[in-house]
């Protein structure tokens, strides 16, 4: 039996908390993220022989550094590297919600897109081709209505297949202008020299090109902790 950490990301009002409650039931607790005033909801559930720890990330519209909520969600996906990130989107506002999903796909390959509120979409005559979206994005896509319990089992089965290696994702990557792509190609090797494969080099390159000072501070703190003491460096120099 194994335990897997699952991050739950999404815009506000997508039904993310409803899904969190449906999966964890009474096996959950709330608090604050360490050093932050941002609330933390965490819960557990069991499925097909595995234990899962579900972390409900703050609802955000992006994963840049515009707020404490965005920084918490961003840092968890990047530095804690959950086994799977489930991105919850609103079926009635799919285009607007897809911005966050595409950002997550630049950060990690282990993603499931959960299209929630399909009952509301049906009322508005909205038809969603989940297979076509899955083919375009290169990740599993599950349609559901969390409040009605519809699609929960399919989501759990998809999650089980992903953690057991039965599903291999090939996430869609946004291609930017030639100028930006040239900058990325120059920066990526330097990032890999420092962090190896432990962090997504392409995503970091994009954030550095944008001058994300908040991320730079976090990177400096984490990188400083990994450095050997100065006297040890001299002794081997």
Automatic annotation (TrEMBL):
Cleaved signal peptide residues: none
Domain of life assignment: Bacteria
UniProt domain FeoB-type G: residue ranges: 3-165
MF terms (GO), sorted A to Z: ferrous iron transmembrane transporter activity; GTP binding
GO cellular component: plasma membrane
InterPro entries: FeoB_Cyto, FeoB_GTPase, G_FEOB_dom, GTP-bd, P-loop_NTPase, Small_GTP-bd
A Pfam family: FeoB_Cyto
PROSITE patterns the record matches: G_FEOB
Keywords in alphabetical order: GTP-binding, Nucleotide-binding
Protein name: 50S ribosome-binding GTPase
């Amino acid at each position: 039996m194994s335990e897997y950490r699952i991050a739950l990301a999404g815009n506000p009002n997508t039904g993310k908390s409803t899904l969190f409650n449906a999966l964890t039931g009474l096996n959950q607790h709330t608090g604050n993220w360490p050093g932050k005033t941002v609330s933390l909801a965490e819960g557990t559930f069991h499925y097909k022989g595995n234990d899962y720890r579900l972390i409900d990330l703050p609802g955000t519209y992006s994963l840049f550094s515009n707020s404490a909520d965005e920084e918490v969600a961003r840092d968890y996906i990047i530095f804690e590297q959950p086994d799977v990130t489930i991105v919850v989107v609103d079926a009635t506002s799919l285009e607007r919600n897809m911005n966050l999903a595409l950002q997550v796909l630049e950060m990690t390959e282990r993603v499931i897109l959960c299209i929630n509120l399909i009952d509301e979409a049906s009322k508005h005559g909205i038809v969603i081709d989940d297979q076509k979206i899955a083919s375009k994005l290169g990740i599993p896509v599950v349609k559901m209505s969390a409040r009605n319990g519809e699609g929960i089992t399919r989501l759990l089965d998809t999650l089980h297949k992903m953690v057991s290696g039965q599903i291999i994702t090939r996430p869609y990557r946004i291609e930017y202008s030639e100028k930006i792509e040239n900058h990325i190609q120059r920066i990526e090797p330097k990032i890999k020299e420092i962090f190896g494969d432990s962090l997504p080099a392409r995503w970091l390159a994009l954030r550095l090109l944008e001058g994300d000072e908040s991320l730079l501070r976090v990177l400096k703190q984490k990188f400083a902790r990994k450095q050997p003491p100065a006297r040890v460096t001299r002794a081997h120099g």
